[in-house]
Amino acid sequence: GGRFDTEFERAGGAAAERTAGEGADSCQAAFGAMLPSYGGERRRAGAADGAGREVLVLTHQGAIYPSAWERFAPYLAEFVGTFLLTLTFIYNYSASRSIVWTATSNGLMVVALMYALGHVSGANLNPSVSVALMLVGRHSPRVAARLCLSQTLGAISAAVVRLMFFSGCVDIGPQKGFTWGAVITIELLYSAMICFVYLNCAASMKNNPVAAQNGFVGLAVGFCFVAGGYAAREVSHSVMNTAIAVGLGVVDCKEGFAARALFYIFADFFGAFIGAGAYRIVRPDEDPNQSESRRDLSERKRQDGNSAKVAAEFFGTFFIIFTKALNRMGSDAEEGIGPEAWSVAAVLTSMVYSLRGISGAYFNPAVTLAAVVSGRSTCERHVALFYVVAQFFAAVSAASLFSLLNHGQPIPLEYRSSQQSYGAKIFAETTFSFLITYVVLASSVSRSELASPSKQDAPSGEKVSGTLPNNDVAGFMYGACQTAGGFAAGHISGAMLNPAVVFSFCGVSVLTGRFEGAVWAYALYQLFGALLATGVFALTHAGLYRQVDDEDDKEAVA
Length: 558
Description:
Distance between the termini: 51 Å
Strand content: under 5%
Oligomer: single chain
Helix content: 55-70%
Order of helices and strands: EEHEEHHHHHHHHHHHHHHHHHHHH
Largest sheet: 2 strands, antiparallel
């Protein structure tokens, strides 16, 4: 390699480069987006090294001059990963296949590949993600272009293999009764969600710090495919990946419908711009191109205005409500309970992992109220009011968009199979609202808070680190509650479990001339369940509310 001095800065799961010579771009690509920093410094050798000879001293984990295979490895990893992923989508989207488990299959393939290849290339596996990383300054344009080319070639190769060894067409495009406008809208939003989640979970320096890298990146991104796959099933098979859209177009070419893939390619590509823009809104202080003075100003503005926190609650609530509404499109039969519960849990898990370090990721007015009352809130009480407003506004926006896509039809509030009494319905809503709230409050407890103020396990003077920002199971805990409640209460009350859901779903019904007074009352019982959970949490975590008089003990608890 030529002579150059370069330093790699790991930016929460993606690499940013600074170079004083030629060659750093290829070096950055070789080490990939999720590798630790590689660097070195040139100094004059001492007597042991040979006087007068300039040597390169490695700062840590590796050589600054990668071999040819090391430079090629990230692109090969992207090629292989996208090949396998596209082949999975093509098999699952064969016209004769049932849709029941296709979204889960696609999503879990993403999870497996991201964990397998993340340390090699960052496991973008999607040109939209690579473009989004470039837009936020984590990839250079040249590296992003190479990654996109590798991914596209992998998808085309999978399509060619499919054509060589298997017959039949793939099922893409709008289902009966829907237009390309609905397909593009859904594809655009879920592609943006995938880019948004990837950036927040992998590229954020605060959510994925070098010293304590999180373990939920693959799970969060893979679950986005689960959520979007089930949510869009009545409208179209969702793709949410530009390279896979190209591969599906090649397979369709044999049947004469290649042009259909262009709509998916267009929507998925522009989803990267929406996702990157939303990421900038919720994390305005993580721009690697900002000067220090501008970065400090941005940080102060974020802290003073709390706009990023409120925006985080809006984005998260919007995708959760929109996903729940889409799952009720076209049918209110009982067979929709399972996909809805699993899909909503998936998007909730992804959003919690993405935004928990910003706003607390409540996405539910009842949970927000409980967090404030219990003293576990990550914001001031007056800001919590804006949280609730943002959650309701996001819910109304999502429900209105659903109604527009569904030809003005209201959202089914319950499944047809529900034959339970009203008492059983409100008891189900109260019980599972209690569960959700208690679990969210419990997941906010850090190790340092659990340590006894008078009997610290850590050595004297050493603080016990908390787990709040990077609790690797917090998102899964919240999502598990939604899965449990969705399956168990779905055939009883419709599993609303969120006052914002009740408000938005019933609001759409009001616009169509139906006033569901009994369902409106669910919100009161959800709030009651949340407050009941707050009281039980205070009793089971009494040590968190102990009054400590000694100053040293106060410092230990903090």
